[in-house]
Amino acid sequence: MKRIKMLLSKRKARTESSRTVLEGLRLVMDVCQVDLNNDAGTASQHVETVIVSELALNHPTQGLELKRVLLRLINQQHVTVCMATDEVIQSCSDTITSQGILAVCKIPANHTPDIYGADNYGGMYVVLDGLSDPGNVGTLLRTCVAVGDVKAVILLPGSCDVWNPKALRSAMSATFQIPIVSCASFGDCIDLLTECDVMTSRNFFAATMETSSESSMPQSSPAHYSIQWRPSVTDDKSSVALCIGSEGNGLSEEVRDAISNGSIQSVHVPMQNQMESLNAAVCGSVILFEYARQRDTK
User: Fold this and answer.
1) CA–CA separation, 76 vs 238, rounded Å?
2) pTM of the prediction?
3) 298 vs 48: CA distance, rounded Å
4) Which of 67, 120, 169, 176 is the most exposed, fewest CB within 10 Å of its CB?
């Protein structure tokens, strides 16, 4: 249990061990279901240990489903299921009131283009530029999975640790359903996107406001619905990328400079009634579903 406390509270512990901890009935069962849907015994299996109490097993609406999921895990995979008291689980819980279940999971390896081969091309990449709020990050991860066709989420410096408890609860099982890669710099991000066939000067868009007081930024950018997010028939292997800035500071200086010198493009979500900005997760979700709408429109 000491190890679980460390994984819940220390980013360094999660990074060094490549492990994290899930809490809550719905989250644990959803990630277990992701594993059950994958091939047993492969590298795509995440859950290693489940620690559960009578409180969770006897839950009035989810207890029976939990028992079925745990039995399937035990029968099909190398998963350890341990019983513990409610008090023991609560003692290391990150939540005020524990639901009586924890799971230790492997953190997937960093995404690289070689993993997907030809399937790596022709989709969307989402870049989070210093997005630090776990709720916003989790919401965007869920949106990426819901939209489909998002090949990877790329984290720039200053972004939230997607494997911390709050971000995991916000994202539900989405964190385990989409490749995630951390880049040490914006330059590394550009190199990665180039490998993934994103023509960054044309198909990499950073979300900003329609007008900006920053002297390094252009005074306007096209509306999200005016962008041709899907490639043309003659360029059907080209990928696109969308960058979302942080909640308080917006886009980083490096990204703003890239917009200013034409290395990447800008885009905005039009607003009325003198509203100046949207929540980062809302802004990103609006744009991503416009991308999906164009994709699905024949």
Assistant:
1) 39
2) 0.89
3) 43
4) 67
